[in-house]
Amino acid sequence: MTIDRRRLFDMLAKRCHDPDLLWLLHVIVFHDPTKDYKMQDRDNLRQHLPPHKSLFHAPPFCGLPIGNLTSQFFANVYLNELDQFIKHVLKCCFYLRYVDDLVLLDPKIEKLQNWQHAITDFTGEKLALAMNQKATRLAPVAGGVDFAGFIVRHDYMLVRRRVVGNLKMKLRQAGRRLFYPSSEYTAFRFEAETLQRLFATVNSYLGHFMRAQTRRCVKKLWKNFPFIPRFFRVFSHKLARLDQRLRRKRKLKPQIHWLQYQFKGYICLIEIGCYFEAFNADAQKLAPLLNLRLQKNWRGFAYSCGFPRRFLMKNLGKLKNARVPVVVVRETGRELYRTKERLPYLLLEYPKP
User: Fold this and answer.
1) Looking at the structure, do residues 275 and 331 belong to the same domain, yes or no?
2) Which pLDDT tens digit goes with each residue over 338-348?
């Protein structure tokens, strides 16, 4: 947000001698996204954005739109001047930069202190940028280098505590919508939108964790959030949707077989049209509990029973009183060839006596 676009264009113009390309660069660099725009913010989240991270509060001719692919390249072009200064003027042998994170290494702390002052002066005078003094520190490498989201040490890397804390916060937020523990029973709700968002978020974090030594950290996460395996298949650094294979079943019978195999020990109540039905061993167990008629040879199964959809809550109450674990499977409204898609909706289980 503090990159001076006039200085940036001068840097680009020094290297670009094609008039057509130079014209295009001028259009991109000096385009002002705060004018002639269409705001897409249904949840009004822009109010939570700090002013120093918004182009609406940037000084004139300052700031690049983060969404533009050219902005990332232009930022590297802009800081190339700093790279050249550190390598060729300060003569720093061990220098790293990722976007705006810098690391300089040297055995003498006095030299590092001098470099720090020189870099602060250079960025202020030549680039009109201010160094983040709060994030700048001098420290021995034995304690680890905080760089690009990791704590880097001599022979291993760790993830920042703040990153792990952010993941825990998002897991707790999702858990409040999916997981309802109580002294009598525990309910799991399979909310499609929440699960998809959680799936993408956790896998993104796990992809980040793969670059560091995080085996114990990940193992502890699954222990602290035990509801995760109810919705996903958990691997060391990856989650997979539990219902992924169910989504591929194109006929009713394979759907029911998969559900009964996946949820062994639970009665599967499967929505079929206006009814909820149970089959084979589930039907034999459910019929006497709810006083239902047990049918034979129905829909290709030896036994089946069911009840109208409007009695679902009433019958779930009876099953709760009898402490019978149950999975409710509902139709999503999506057609899979000639069969409707069905996915778990609610799971009830009870603590062991």
Assistant:
1) yes
2) 789 999 999 99
Long-range contacts of 269-273 (CB under 8 A, 24+ apart): 269/312, 269/326, 269/327, 269/328, 269/329, 270/329, 270/342, 271/309, 271/328, 271/329, 271/330, 271/331, 271/342, 272/306, 272/331
* C-alpha 313, offset from chain centre: 34
CATH number of the domain bearing residue 310: 3.40.1170.10
Instruction: For the chain, list the strands marked E by DSSP.
Output: 94-98, 101-105, 145-147, 150-152, 157-159, 179-181, 186-189, 232-235, 238-241, 267-272, 275-279, 295-298, 301-308, 326-336, 339-349
**pLDDT, mean over the chain:** 90
Say what the pTM is. Answer: 0.76
Q: What is the mean pLDDT of residues 12-33?
A: 92
Query: What is the tens place of the pLDDT at every residue in 130-155?
Result: 888 888 889 898 888 888 888 998 88
In a domain, 152, yes or no: no
Beta bridge partners of 104: 95
Q: Determine how β-strand 267-272 pairs with β-strand 232-235.
A: unpaired
| Structural domain range at position 303 | 246-349
* 297-317 mean pLDDT: 94
Kindly report the three-state secondary structure assignment for every residue of 32-88: CCCCCCCCCCCCCHHHHCCHHHCHHHCCCCECCCCCCHHHHHHHHHHHHHHHHHHHH
Question: Are 98 and 22 members of one domain?
Answer: yes
pLDDT > 90? residue 34? no
